[in-house]
Write a structure and sequence with these properties.
InterPro entries (chain A): Asp/Glu-ADT_sf_sub_c (IPR036113), GatC (IPR003837)
Structural class of chain A: mainly alpha
CATH architecture of one domain in chain B: Alpha-Beta Complex
Protein name (chain A): Aspartyl/glutamyl-tRNA(Asn/Gln) amidotransferase subunit C
Oligomer: heterodimer
Radius of gyration of chain A: 23 Å
Structural class of chain B: alpha/beta
Largest interface: A-B, 55 and 72 residues
Distance between the termini of chain B: 11 Å
Helix content of chain B: 25-40%
Number of strands of chain B: 11
Family (chain A): Belongs to the GatC family.
CATH topology of one domain in chain B: Amidase signature (AS) enzymes
Number of strands of chain A: 2
Strand content of chain B: 5-15%
GO molecular function, one term (chain A): asparaginyl-tRNA synthase (glutamine-hydrolyzing) activity
Number of helices of chain B: 16
Radius of gyration of chain B: 21 Å
Order of helices and strands of chain A: HHHEEH
Subunit structure (chain A): Heterotrimer of A, B and C subunits.
Number of helices of chain A: 4
Chain lengths: 101, 491
Amino acid sequence: MAAISREEVAHLARLSRLAVTEEELDTFAGQLDVILQAVAQVGEVAAADIPPTSHSVPLTNVLRDDVVVPGLTPAEALSGAPDAEEQRFRVPRILDEDVAS
Amino acid sequence: MSDLTRLTAVEIAGLVAGGETSAVEVTQAHLDRIAAVDDRVRAFLHVDTDGALAAARAVDERRAAGEELGPLAGVPVAVKDVLTTKGVPTTVGSKILEGWRPPYDSTIVQRLRDAGTVMLGKTNMDEFAMGSSTEYSAYGATHNPWDLDRIPGGSGGGSAAALAAYEAPLAIGSDTGGSIRQPGAVTGTVGAKPTYGGTSRYGLVAFSSSLDTPGPCARTVLDAALLHQAIGGHDPRDSTSIPAPVPDVVAAARLGATGDLTGVKLGVVTEFSGEGAEPGVLAAFRESVDTLAKLGAEIVEVSCPHFRYALPAYYLIAPSECSSNLARFDGVRFGLRVGDDGNRSLEEVMQLTREAGFGPEVKRRIMIGTYALSSGYYDAYYGQAQKVRTLITRDFTAAFERVDALISPTTPFVAFPLGARTSDPYQMYLADLYTIPTNLYGGPGISVPCGLSDGLPVGLQVMAPTMADDRMYRVAAALESAVGTLTPPAL
């Protein structure tokens, strides 16, 4: 049985903000199925009482002194932006038209 | 061809410091070599001719002024395009960052500058360091100097190929699941993954933050150790940086080069020394084990039963972290923006931008990660993978109570032909079968050339406990003293 359907891949693409094509959906559905069936092997390990490891370095709350240091200028920070206006990143509209109007 | 490109970093630094050649001469020789061969090798995405010559002139001026130069001053270095370089294009092998010139240097690059090395340019890589062949680069594959029809490994195939093609004596890579060590193995060069947190991730474009580790690539173990020493150590700008000095890897490499491993106990990983690897790889590995024994090392076999689950655990953990990290590529702050026609919403523009900017492997991993982190599957996939990570760490800890270091082949197979594994993504993942456990554990690992199989290089991997990077350099240098360095056929 397939681990993942074409419809589920389409849903994942939406969640991932990827405007995938119909052709890509066909390809990805098969490939993701192979990958997910393979990685599902982790389920064979008896690990109910094992604590998870998120990170190999046991450090918590690394803080620096609260001292002002030079940072990027606004021009530097905006230098790679696709669009900028009045020292800010300019974005496409974020509200629906009927809401915005 | 100039002889200068055949020298080690140690030799170049000695000649520059002694005034027998200049940093400019050395740099020009490497730029000439790049011009002569890189249309075939395609190791570089960007060659910074002006910046390199300016840096070289600065070294020569410092020497002329009587300043004392560091051990790598005047030595050219190639930098994987995953590290930010101020004003110099940084693409991560992706169209989504095409043309981006970062406003700041990564800590690694800053330390390279402080050491007086000369950055030649940025090297090719699988997009966002996801891959084992550089074929997933949005700018075309790099070719292995040993056989131009074969892959140079990945993701850092550009850095490894630049070394093997004598385009650079030193290079920087990053290793999330083997991206320094596997390219080193298949190009006959040395690649070291430092202890996680031993080298700074500041300015390293993030793929999987709990695994990403920048590190040195070179043609000799001592050169790799010197580069490791120059770039390593605590960085207050990286919250996961270990606040301790770099173990003395240079002294360890020099000690190993004496060829004496008396008193060193090495464990051959049972799970990685039998089936699964090509016969030629196993033969070269077993011969090297005999060599290490002749050098005085005590060899035992060590079973690490959970290592067989490292690959599936990795391909849940790394994609999960990637799906989160790559959310920053939204077409707002840097890089590509597609479809902003004044009518489309931010969300639509974001979807079109990411669709156009990311390649297929990056999309697959983002979706796998999104799947593994979603509420219905979290416990069975991401959560379970994190528990397996604990068990793999325990395997390492138990092994290092018995032995000083573990050894295995670096990769199950030699460089495969370009195109052989791109249609089946999971077949590509198998290239990192032996390198991934180290990343999950967080310890250091190094690949050192150990012989040839059908005329193609084979690498031996040494894995050591966290913050015992010096141990792996000692073992690798000892093997190198017996095996020698590998020289590819003339290009």
